[in-house]
Specification:
Length: about 260
């Protein structure tokens, strides 16, 4: 496995992305509630690809693992320090944790099958994965303005069935509603607030934007700015501004070993 200068182990350089990440990627409480419920009564929780600590439950014993030094440095002081490690080689004995979680991370793993096997090896109970379904990402209006970004996301995100196969046990896949004022700034969080994506920092906080060239960023900015000024975007998508929540590609995948329950 080749790791980047700051330790990033996936295909994106979080030494760059981390510069504005926490300005735009704050945990969304309503999504956090769904994730924490899926952890059941687990007391010890492994968080793989923990980043700056979004979605870590405060009422449990959490062990975070994060390969990027830049992201580890952005963890708030009240959260436990993250272990420098990767999903593919977890430095823990078998059955070390009651549950495991990972949020917006599996698409970064260099060897998905090995990472899933490792997470299952060290976890006795549910494994909870917040991710996106690649079959649904192109349904977002952003595809009209920068298809390269959503093509990148569709290519990187593993299908939920692949996650289910890799984790084993009984798996459920649930679409997660995205609230109108979602505080976690992934692309679809701005389904009703297109103006925010005109901010380069907001785009930088979504790793898929790091895979498109500057010309694509410029073309996107010019196209969306024009459509917002002349009312084209609102004529096509303005109804979204009134939706309290929207179902996009965000899904919660929960794998429970056979013979065990989530709670």
């Amino acid at each position: 496995m080749v790791r980047m200068r700051d330790g990033s182990a996936g295909d994106a350089d979080y030494g760059v992305i981390a510069r504005t990440y926490t300005d735009h990627r704050q945990p969304e409480p309503r999504i956090a509630e769904l994730l924490h419920t899926a952890l059941g009564d687990a007391r010890t929780v492994l968080n793989v690809g923990a980043g700056a600590g979004s979605y870590e439950p405060a009422d449990r014993d959490v062990t975070p693992v994060e390969p990027s030094a830049s992201m580890r440095a952005r963890r708030p002081g009240h959260l436990p320090a993250a272990v420098d490690g990767t999903a593919e080689s977890l430095p823990f004995p078998d059955d070390s944790f009651d549950a495991a979680m990972t949020t917006f991370s599996v698409h970064q793993w260099s060897d998905l099958g090995r990472g899933l096997a490792e997470v299952r090896r060290v976890t006795t109970g549910p494994v909870v994965v917040l991710t996106c379904d690649p079959a649904l990402v192109r349904d977002f209006w952003l595809y009209d303005y920068c298809p390269e970004v959503l093509d990148t996301e569709a290519r990187r995100y593993p299908e939920p069935s692949v996650l289910a196969e890799g984790l084993g046990g009984t798996t459920t896949v649930t679409r997660v509603p995205i609230p109108l004022d979602c505080s976690d700034g992934f692309n679809e969080a701005y389904y009703a607030r297109p103006e925010v994506l005109l901010d380069p920092g907001a785009r930088q906080a979504c790793s898929a934007w790091s895979f498109v060239d500057e010309a694509a960023h410029t073309r996107f900015h010019e196209h969306l700015s024009r459509d917002l000024r002349d009312g084209t975007w609102d004529a096509r998508h303005g109804h979204l501004r009134e939706l309290p929540e929207w179902e996009g590609s965000l899904v919660l995948v929960v794998s429970t070993p056979e013979g065990r329950s989530k709670a």
